[in-house]
Design a protein that fits this description.
7 helices; mainly alpha; 113 residues; elongated; 0% strand
Length: 113
């Protein structure tokens, strides 16, 4: 597939409008506003979906599973709860231990001013 091309026919205007109305009901003002909470790609945040992506997103929003939308539509396996758990662990870790582990992995760490 060439760069910038989608893997299927584009969603109809009717599908996109319906998606937009479902996003408004879910508390988002636009596709861009819903990008990170729902795990949408940059292309999808611009309102461009394939027919398959739009159908999957509509199904998930209707079934009330917004936390799984990005994973299901974009094929990611990481779940929001796993990410939240990792963030909680990292926040509770002493800075010296965290910096030491990052340096062991090749990062360069400097203390804040």
């Amino acid at each position: 597939m060439a760069f910038g091309q989608t893997s299927g026919p584009p969603a109809s205007a009717k599908q996109v409008k319906y998606l937009e109305s479902l996003l408004h009901k879910a508390g988002h003002t636009s596709f861009r506003d819903a990008r990170h909470p729902l795990g949408l790609t940059q292309r999808q945040a611009g309102g461009k979906f394939t027919t398959k992506e739009a159908s999957e997103l509509i199904d998930l929003l209707l079934n009330g599973e917004p936390a799984d939308v990005g994973a299901a539509v974009n094929g990611f396996t990481s779940r929001d709860s796993d990410i939240d758990e990792r963030e909680t662990i990292a926040r509770g870790m002493p800075a010296g231990i965290l910096a030491g582990e990052l340096e062991r992995r090749g990062w360069v760490c400097t203390p804040p001013n």
